[in-house]
């Protein structure tokens, strides 16, 4: 067996993980199970892959390490500084999202937005509301869950196509999820690429804002007939929305993300107590509920970190990068910067198409993307942005993704109808490709 073959075999555990995760989803979807692709939790699906990786560590390496040595490699990957930092941020981000929501922050943002949207431009307005909430909350699923019921009430009294409305909400949610400082995709991409949150945010704006402006122009052009003002059932103070904007401003200013999130939790609780009806006695339970909401991605990040370390130890990641380089070898050396950007973007697209989870896709392909970025002299903020953007593009356009499934269920339409109207993700793809080849970071 040659060294190259050894490296290729080292990718088998990743293939097994994708096969189990995707195969189970396809089968369950075929028999009509709801949310089929999320019935087998990813932290469970990865266990057979880890066992295979441990076995291959002994078979492939000339030193024939024993089980204890192989487990040491696994634990080293799980204990990687970036992985542990990422996991701690996940916990605090979950806590902030939980406390802010229970304190009335989400309702405040939605009601504030609905109150100022011109009635003829509700689709454009709800795209903006979804974008703001997702940027503040750091979760596209939470945003869709919060906004979709209100949007469904809107279409019941208008002639707006439900698929267009659903596509706008998913698009806005993906915009915000891609930019948010507390999104798990942002955290994963910056930590795997060694980028600063504020730098990645500013880099992302170059791609995301033009795409958002274009899709807004389309929604405004489509317009609609003026209708009676839409009223929500819940009356909340606009002051309850302040914690969301507070953490965005502090994060842009470059304050440490741990401190930003801790201050966000405190301010959300206090604003809920003094302006709303939040009871401070429930703060501990709400924080813990936020921790629990991050359980799956917390565990998966640890396990993926261990799997990646084993694959790297066996030469698998080196093999993957060399294959990508070979595919793109027709480009001249002078074009290496642009060629490797395409490679990083392709990693995000292909991996997420298989896994249908943009955070997992980023974690899985993070090491390979960083190697490509170093080789092509691509800045960390650009590689982090590309990984996040292209995985989010795919996530918004796969019919078996959680976002499309939730939006489809909320509006009573097919996931296919949803993804064919997520115009933001389509426009973002073309804008991003243009930026990649016309602007260096």
TrEMBL record:
A GO MF label: antiporter activity
What family is reported?
A: Belongs to the NhaC Na(+)/H(+) (TC 2.A.35) antiporter family.
Please give the InterPro entries that the UniProt record associates with this protein: Na/H_Antiport_NhaC-like_C (IPR018461), NhaC_Na-H+_Antiporter (IPR052180)
Q: Where are the transmembrane segments?
A: 9-28, 40-61, 82-100, 112-134, 205-222, 242-275, 342-364, 385-409, 421-438
Residues in Na+/H+ antiporter NhaC-like C-terminal domain copies? 51-223, 245-434
Major subcellular location class: membrane
User: What is this protein called in UniProt?
Assistant: Na+/H+ antiporter NhaC family protein
List the subcellular locations: Cell membrane
Q: How does it sit in the membrane?
A: Multi-pass membrane protein
For this UniProt record, the keywords arranged alphabetically read as follows: Antiport, Cell membrane, Membrane, Transmembrane, Transmembrane helix, Transport
Question: What do the Gene Ontology cellular component annotations say?
Answer: plasma membrane
């Amino acid at each position: 067996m040659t060294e190259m073959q050894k490296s290729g075999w080292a990718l088998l555990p990743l293939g097994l993980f994708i096969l189990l995760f995707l195969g189970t989803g396809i089968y369950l979807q075929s028999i009509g199970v709801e949310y089929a692709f999320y019935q087998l939790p990813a932290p469970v699906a990865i266990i057979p892959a880890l066992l295979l990786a441990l076995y291959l560590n002994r078979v492939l390496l000339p030193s024939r390490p024993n089980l204890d040595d192989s487990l040491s490699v696994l634990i080293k990957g799980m204990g990687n500084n970036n992985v542990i930092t990422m996991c701690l941020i996940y916990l605090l981000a979950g806590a902030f999202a939980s406390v802010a929501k229970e304190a009335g922050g989400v309702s405040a943002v939605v009601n504030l937005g609905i109150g100022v949207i011109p009635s003829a431009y509700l689709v454009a307005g709800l795209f903006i509301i979804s974008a703001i909430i997702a940027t503040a909350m750091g979760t596209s699923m939470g945003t869709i869950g919060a906004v979709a019921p209100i949007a469904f009430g809107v279409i019941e009294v208008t002639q707006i196509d439900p698929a267009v409305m659903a596509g706008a909400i998913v698009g806005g949610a993906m915009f915000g999820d891609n930019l948010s400082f507390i999104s798990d995709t942002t955290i994963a991409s910056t930590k795997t690429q060694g980028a600063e949150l504020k730098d990645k945010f500013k880099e992302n704006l170059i791609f995301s804002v033009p795409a958002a402006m274009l899709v807004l122009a389309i929604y405004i052009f489509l317009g609609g007939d003026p209708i009676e003002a839409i009223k929500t059932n819940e009356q909340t103070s606009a002051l309850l929305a302040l914690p969301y904007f507070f953490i965005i401003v502090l994060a842009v200013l470059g304050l440490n993300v741990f401190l930003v999130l801790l201050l966000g939790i405190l301010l959300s609780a206090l604003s809920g107590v003094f302006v709303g009806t939040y009871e401070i006695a429930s703060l501990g339970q709400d924080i813990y509920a936020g921790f629990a909401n991050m359980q799956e991605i917390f565990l998966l990040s640890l396990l993926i970190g261990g799997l990646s370390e084993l694959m790297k130890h066996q030469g698998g990641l080196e093999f993957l990068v060399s294959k990508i380089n070979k595919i793109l070898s027709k480009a001249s050396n002078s074009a290496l910067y642009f060629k490797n950007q395409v490679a990083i973007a392709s990693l995000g697209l292909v991996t997420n198409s298989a896994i249908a989870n943009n955070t997992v896709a980023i974690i899985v392909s993070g090491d390979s993307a960083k190697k490509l970025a170093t080789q092509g002299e691509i800045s960390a903020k650009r590689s982090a942005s590309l990984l996040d953007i292209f995985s989010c593009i795919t996530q918004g356009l796969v019919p078996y993704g959680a976002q499309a499934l939730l939006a489809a269920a909320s509006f009573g339409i097919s996931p296919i109808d949803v993804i064919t109207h997520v115009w933001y993700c389509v426009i973002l793809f073309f804008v991003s490709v243009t930026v990649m080849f016309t602007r260096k970071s």
